[in-house]
Specification:
Strand content: 5-15%
CATH architecture of the largest domain: 3-Layer(aba) Sandwich
GO molecular function, one term: oxidoreductase activity, acting on the CH-OH group of donors, NAD or NADP as acceptor
Largest sheet: 6 strands, parallel
Oligomer: single chain
Low-confidence stretches: none
Strand order of the largest sheet: 3-2-1-4-5-6
CATH superfamily of the largest domain: NAD(P)-binding Rossmann-like Domain
Protein name: L-threonate dehydrogenase
Number of helices: 11
Structural class: alpha/beta
Number of domains: 2
Order of helices and strands: EHEHEEHEHEEHEHEHHHHH
Shape: globular
EC number: 1.1.1.411
Mean pLDDT: 95
CATH class of the largest domain: Alpha Beta
Enzyme class: oxidoreductase
CATH topology of the largest domain: Rossmann fold
Family: Belongs to the HIBADH-related family. L-threonate dehydrogenase subfamily.
Distance between the termini: 66 Å
Length: 302
């Protein structure tokens, strides 16, 4: 007799969560999804998913729950708030927390889930919306062996690389913070480099082409600068994400009394962009903080 497919839930059908839910559906897994936006739930339903009007409606029948929200506060609200789902999941279910959070928060959430006889995989994700839609994410995961066994099919559906980083919650989140340190610094550096080049008279498209094929290139430069060239600041990942994530990095370093000068500088750049009203724009909008230049498709000088 074949093993029944696990019933999966996804809370948070944003650019990453919706792609993950679609990938689970393509793999043939039964999937329900919840998001506060009616139009997102409707779109999910049109693709064969089961949209819920509330996050706890299908809890008792759920084997695996992906929580794809913004931060630790939202994760804990989903799990333990007034309408928290943790108390309604059946014992032995696996919760995969995908937000970028501190290692300390991951450990705290795992301990609270254990009180409900629930397993947790600390499973922050990387790869962006396009890779989420293709089921090609990278997951930096830590948790008990039993949880990984139960989540094997679902993890294979949403990711091409699942790094198992240990049995304790927090190990995955700490490596994700290292990734976010690099991502934020690289985006800030890409913005600064493009602003400098434009100020010195370089053609932006030519500058991008040359650097993309030179030693100064980075994945973030190659991925984000096209948004700047197109004047397209619709958020795939917003400026405010890096205000939050680099803040988490700096907070953890503060506890360890460890200097992070590049992270601190990049964090200030994102905070400046957010304060100027660009917080909900694509993260490459940090380039807008530089004065005296005209970015592509921008009718004013910054």
């Amino acid at each position: 007799m074949s093993t029944p497919l696990p019933s999966c839930g996804v809370i948070g059908l944003g650019s990453m969560g919706l792609g993950m839910a679609r990938s689970l559906l393509r793999a043939g897994l039964p999937v329900w999804g919840y998001d506060i936006r009616d139009e997102v739930r409707a779109a999910f339903a049109s693709e064969g998913g089961l949209p819920l009007n509330g996050p706890t409606e299908h809890a008792a029948a759920t084997d695996l729950l992906f929580i794809v929200v913004v931060n630790a506060e939202q994760t804990e609200q989903v799990l333990f708030g007034e309408q928290g789902i943790a108390a309604r999941l059946k014992p032995g279910s696996v919760v995969l927390t995908c937000a970028t959070i501190s290692a300390q928060a991951a450990r705290r959430i795992a301990e609270r889930l254990a009180e409900h006889q629930l397993l947790m995989i600390d499973a922050p994700i990387s790869g962006g919306a396009q890779r989420a839609a293709k089921g090609e994410l990278t997951i930096m995961a830590s948790g008990p062996e039993k949880a990984f066994q139960r989540a094997e099919a679902a993890l294979a559906a949403v990711a091409t690389k699942v790094y198992r980083l240990g049995s304790e919650a927090g190990q995955g989140s700490q490596i994700k913070l290292v990734n976010q340190l690099l991502a934020g610094v690289h985006i800030a550096a890409a913005a600064e480099a493009m602003a400098y080049g434009i100020r010195q008279g370089c053609d932006p498209a030519t500058l991008y082409e040359v650097i993309s094929n030179s030693a100064g290139n980075s994945w973030m430069f190659e991925n984000r600068v096209p948004h700047l060239l197109a004047g397209d600041y619709q958020p795939r990942s917003a400026v405010n994400i890096f205000v939050k994530d680099l803040g988490l990095v700096l907070d953890s370093a503060q506890d360890a009394v460890f200097p992070l000068p590049l992270t601190a500088s990049a964090h200030q750049m994102f905070k400046q962009a957010s304060a100027a009203g660009f917080g909900r724009e694509d993260d490459i909008a940090v380039a807008k903080i530089f004065p005296g230049i005209r970015l592509p498709h921008d009718g004013t000088e910054g």
